Amino acid sequence: MKLKILFILIFPAFFFSCITQPKSIVYFQDLGKYRQKLQMTSDLEAYEPIIKKYDELLITVAAPVLDQDAVAQFNLPITVYLTQIDTKATNIQQSPSVQTYIVDNSGNINYPVIGRIFLAGLTISQATEHIRDLVSNYIKDPVVNLKIMSFKVTVLGEVMRPGVVPVTQGRLSILDAIGATGDLTIFGDRKNVLLVRENDNGKLDYIRFDLTNSNIFTSPYYYLQQNDKIIVEPNDTKQLESKYSPANNYRLSIFSMVFSALSVIASTTIAIISLHRN
Length: 278
Fold this sequence. Notes:
Layout (H helix, E strand, L loop, with lengths): L1 H18 L36 E7 L5 H5 L5 E8 L6 E7 L2 E2 L5 E4 L3 E4 L5 H12 L7 E6 L3 E6 L5 E4 L7 H7 L7 E11 L5 E6 L19 E6 L1 H6 L4 H32 L1
Parallel strand pairs: 8-12
Antiparallel strand pairs: 1-4, 1-7, 2-3, 5-6, 8-9, 10-11, 10-12
Helix pairs in contact: 1-6
């Protein structure tokens, strides 16, 4: 009988001490089982950004020619904006700005000399080569550079600094985007990270990632497209806490601590009494 009472008193203390243990928050946990170097290969072409409707593009053309007028007609003029006027009327500061192209609802841009060019659905390298071929009809050996100026992704949920991440380089991975927002919080569910991507047909794709598994590196969604949304959902602990007010959470925490302490004291007392009687 005494052993049953002792078990009943000790078990709650053990239970409450266990539930306070944090869950594993280690990324790519399966990599630990590989003793040799693990290599993963992927098709980089599949991850190149694709031009979409309403993208803002910066396109410049250059060529090794003496007649710069022939090249200039394929470049939009630089707009100069007045940014500051010195109150003493000694200086006027101006800021140059390069004009860009907007991909319209039909997937075209209106390009100088050539006219409408369909670019939606092409990768950056494909669009660059397409424009170069068209300009080659007017200029010998043109050099074309193309950049998506509106390339950005949004990261929301359980990260340190949720918000918009601008992409200045050619591509951005899901890990880069999460890193740019300060990483997941302790309450972020690393096994349930949601990616929302809008297709050209207006439909949305929903892809879930498990950041504790290295399979993410070979996913075709590992590298992001412009306007992707990453949502880090809260783990079970955070969802449970959200059901209670801060005051209730505090009282529950105090109650758990007091109950655990009383259980330990009671079990110790019973054990001492039992030893003395024996």
